[in-house]
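Mods, move this if it's the wrong board.
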Amino acid sequence: MSKTFRPWKIDEPLLLPPVVQEFVAKDHLARLVLNLVREDIDLAAISGSYAGERGQPPFDPVMMTVLLLYSYCCGIYSSRRIAKACRERVDFMSIVGFDAPDFRTISEFRRRHSKALSALFQQVLQLCETAGLVKLGHVALDGTKIKANASKHKAMSYERMEQRAAELEAEVGKWFAVAEATDAEEDKRYGADKTGEEMPDWVTDKQRRAERIRQAKAELEAEAKASAEAKLKAAAEAQQRREAEGRKKSGPPAAPPSTTPEPKAQKNFTDPESRIMKSKDGFVQAYNAQIVVDSAAQIIVAQDVTQSAADSGQLVPMTDAVETNLGRKPEQLSADAGYCSEANLEALESRGIDGYVATGRARDAVAGRVKDESAVAPRAPEEPSSRQAEPTPAATPSRVEAMREKIKAGGHASPYRLRKQLPEPVFGQIKQARGFRQFLLRGFQKVRAEWAIVCTAHNLLKLVQRRSLSAAPLAAR
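Not the wrong board. Structure tokens:
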């Protein structure tokens, strides 16, 4: 039996194809992120950069921003992987439609607007505060080592630099001598009008390598000189304070800091601004990423990246960053032993923040045991005990000792326990759930911008989840 064609009846409705936004459900993350960025985030800094250019930008800057933020929320960071998802995944198609940008466009957009994209962290954070996700009752500070886009095997120590540069230069010198002799012989054989004077590529590569080593050596020397000058300045300021307070420094005078680099000091040739840092996986070429997490909903209220492997110098700037971002200080702050020092505890006191900073291992601190005195934060320097009968500043417990007693008195119910309960899950969500274990960009400023986008995506997910949960009862009614 043959099939017959049945024409459309006039009274039957014509079914239109769905628009790209209907590729996903209304409560899908892609649509929620798209609506939030369009309605609540000011992208004038990005869109306005195209005002002086002729014509229109090749792709809508708002769409490109949504695409990047949504990709980071999904744990996709490579521009090539993002471009592939735009061609193959319906959730990405709901954002870009059927006009998918290529990976070069995505990479260039991220590079061009890295500063403006990192500034979105503060806007999203303020939206989180408006939604009731930020209370600043208690915040916890912590850092993690994230690999740089460079191999530690591409680094060279200062001691080896001079030796290797001399070896390369001597090797290139021999090649030049051989090349000159060969040129003279060929001129004699073929005539002086023949060229043949260009150096082979392998000679040029050796020359460039030697020049890069010399440059890295000079950078290490400049850094060592600047560090020595900073130490001398800090020592002079400390001496002035002691003289103003009528105190004297005990012990012999310290040796002046060296202006030459340590023989083992290293410089990486792939990303010279990254550093060798110790992590749980051993020594890695990395940066030290910092976050401050609020206790209400694990929102990141401050973030930054540092080139220093030590955390102690980050407590004050990160604490001040919270006030810069939200206009007020947290009531309490907890941190691990890497942030403990007399200066840091004094800074928390002067800011009126109730601090809970570890002075050693967590279980020993709560139980009141200190197994290794050398591992805990140093005590405050004591004055010479020339007047034992009168109370002296040495008889007053240092801030580190007072913090140790404070944590011991609070026991397991102390807010001190939050120092790991808040930041560690956030690091787990970023590094494990969303797979951000290595920076894609190179250079300190680019890495800072990339980390800001990662933290923005984390807060954005929290905000979208809160809004979707708040709208669920209304939709049910």
